[in-house]
Structures are given as C-alpha cells and as structure tokens.
C-alpha cells in the first residue's frame, strides 16, 4: 500500500508540475493560434518525463507525452472545437491518449499480460472518468457568488489533476512493475523541482482564489462562416462597450484574438442576449458564433 501511495503522489506531482509550466507558457503566447496545442504538449511531455524517470525511462515517456499532448491539442482545438479555454476537459484528452500509447508500448515489448492490462485500463481510465466528473463540478460555480466560484473552480481542477496523474502512474506500475532502484542526480533534482513548483502553484492559486471576486470575461476570435450563428446588429453592440472595443480592435488588426475580464453586468447581459437565440450555442459546448456586418466571430464566456 505504501508503494501505491508513492506512485500516486509522484503521478499527481508530475501532472501538476507539467500543468503549471504549461499554463505559464500560455501567458507568454496568449493570442497565438497554436497556444492551446503548445500548452498541452509542454504539460504532458513534462508529466511523461517526470513519471518516466521513476523507471529510468524519462526520454521514452517524455516522447509519449509530447505525442499525446500534441495530438490531444490538435483534436481538441481543431476537431472538437471547444470554447477557447485551456482549462478543464482539454487537459483530460491527452491523458486518455497517454494511457493508450503507454499500453500499446508495453504490448509491443511484451511487458504485459491480460491481467495487468485489465488492471491498467481499469485504474488509468477510471482516473479519466473521475477527472471529467470533477471538472463538470466547476459548472456549479455560476450558482454561487463571492469567493465560492473561484474556490470551486480551483479545487475541482486541482483534484482532477491529482486524480488523473496519480491513477495513470499507478496504472504504469501495473504494467512496468516496481520502479528502478537506481538513483541519479537528474532524477532527484527533477522530482524535487516538481514538488517545489507544485506546492508553490497550489499555494499561489489557493491565495488567488481566496482573494478573487467572481470575475468574468470573453474570449473572442474571428472565424470563417460557421454552421450556426446569431446575427447581431452592429449598432446593438454599443450597449456592450468591452465587447464592442474587442470587435473593433480585431477588425482593425490591432489584435488577433481578445481575452480579458469584463464587468459582470455586461457579461451576463450579452450572454442573456445570445442565449435567447436558438442557434447560439455550438452543440452545447459553451461557445457562441455571431455575425456582425459581414464578419463572423466565436465568443466564449468564462468565469474565474
């Protein structure tokens, strides 16, 4: 049991470590189209390398993480077409791919039997299901006010990352066996760094959640003509000054995309306006497509 706790904690730290670096990257490349894909790639490559070091297979599992993160980002961003947020479910898809590719890798080198395969699938993919349910709980935050919404968002995301990373790592234990006893400076340094960064991130985000109000904002980008959209009169958008300025800046080429906080009153008023339209939501994924003059825009509403 002590061994399982060790693997679970390493997997949890590895994923939090990777996500922290990935989210930091997102602040450097905000507004760049490939930003979500880059974030997934960085996050899961670090997770793969971190957990792989337990078995002295850091490069191998780092490569699996790069493939899983990149492919997951491409699928999520271009095929599934979610709201343009890197939080939540977007991080879980690469986890599914990481588990799948790890299993295939073990099968190819004959390092697995039927019993261990079933255990791996059950453990690793239960982490994915649990993480999906935990992320869904973040939708409850709009039912509260004050400090509760950011706290709910923080704890649901943190718990899902701990569960997903921890159970995937336990799954790897069942297909790879006990980790190598060989210690080296890289392994010790990288695992210690992961723990330090993870603790700092948790404390920082918790403090931020405690001090945060129920912020709200838009993510807006120009798109080609979608299948479903709402026609918004150009004069009507003047009622929403933050939204109008973002559209104007995009049209004039000052920015590629807009992401920022807005007054809660404007946020809710615009969402209510668009929600009244039958064709606003894109297959329930939380993003709206609107036509203003002859241009089309995708609008995602976010809260913190």
Automatic annotation (TrEMBL):
<feature type="transmembrane region" description="Helical">
    <location>
        <begin position="116"/>
        <end position="134"/>
    </location>
</feature>
<feature type="transmembrane region" description="Helical">
    <location>
        <begin position="7"/>
        <end position="28"/>
    </location>
</feature>
<feature type="transmembrane region" description="Helical">
    <location>
        <begin position="86"/>
        <end position="109"/>
    </location>
</feature>
<feature type="transmembrane region" description="Helical">
    <location>
        <begin position="61"/>
        <end position="80"/>
    </location>
</feature>
<keyword id="KW-0812">Transmembrane</keyword>
<keyword id="KW-1133">Transmembrane helix</keyword>
<protein>
    <recommendedName>
        <fullName>DUF4203 domain-containing protein</fullName>
    </recommendedName>
</protein>
<feature type="transmembrane region" description="Helical">
    <location>
        <begin position="196"/>
        <end position="214"/>
    </location>
</feature>
<keyword id="KW-0472">Membrane</keyword>
<feature type="transmembrane region" description="Helical">
    <location>
        <begin position="154"/>
        <end position="176"/>
    </location>
</feature>
<feature type="transmembrane region" description="Helical">
    <location>
        <begin position="34"/>
        <end position="54"/>
    </location>
</feature>
């Amino acid at each position: 049991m002590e061994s399982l706790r060790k693997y679970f904690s390493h997997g949890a730290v590895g994923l939090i470590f990777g996500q922290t670096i990935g989210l930091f990257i997102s602040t450097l490349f905000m507004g760049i189209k490939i930003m979500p894909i880059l974030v997934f790639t960085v996050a899961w490559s670090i997770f793969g390398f971190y957990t792989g070091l337990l078995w002295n297979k850091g490069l191998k599992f780092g490569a699996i993480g790069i493939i899983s993160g990149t492919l997951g980002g491409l699928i999520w961003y271009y095929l599934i077409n979610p709201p343009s947020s890197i939080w939540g479910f977007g991080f879980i898809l690469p986890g599914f791919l990481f588990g799948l590719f790890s299993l295939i890798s073990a099968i190819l080198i004959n390092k697995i039997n039927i019993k261990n395969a079933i255990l791996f699938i059950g453990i690793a993919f239960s982490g994915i299901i649990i993480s999906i349910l935990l992320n869904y709980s973040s939708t409850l935050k709009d039912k509260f006010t004050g400090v509760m919404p950011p706290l709910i968002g923080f704890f649901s995301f943190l718990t899902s990352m701990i569960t997903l990373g921890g159970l995937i790592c336990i799954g790897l234990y069942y297909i790879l066996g006990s980790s190598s006893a060989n210690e080296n400076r890289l392994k010790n340094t990288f695992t210690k760094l992961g723990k330090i960064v993870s603790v700092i991130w948790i404390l920082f985000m918790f403090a931020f959640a405690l001090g945060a109000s129920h912020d709200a904002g838009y993510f807006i980008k120009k798109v080609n003509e979608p299948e479903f959209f709402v026609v918004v009169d150009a004069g009507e958008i003047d009622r929403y000054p933050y939204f109008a300025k973002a559209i104007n800046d995009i049209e004039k080429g000052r920015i590629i995309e807009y992401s920022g906080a807005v007054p809660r009153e404007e946020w809710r008023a615009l969402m209510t306006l668009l929600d009244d339209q039958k064709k606003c939501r894109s297959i329930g994924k939380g993003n709206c497509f609107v036509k203003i003059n002859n241009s089309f825009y995708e609008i995602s509403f976010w809260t913190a």
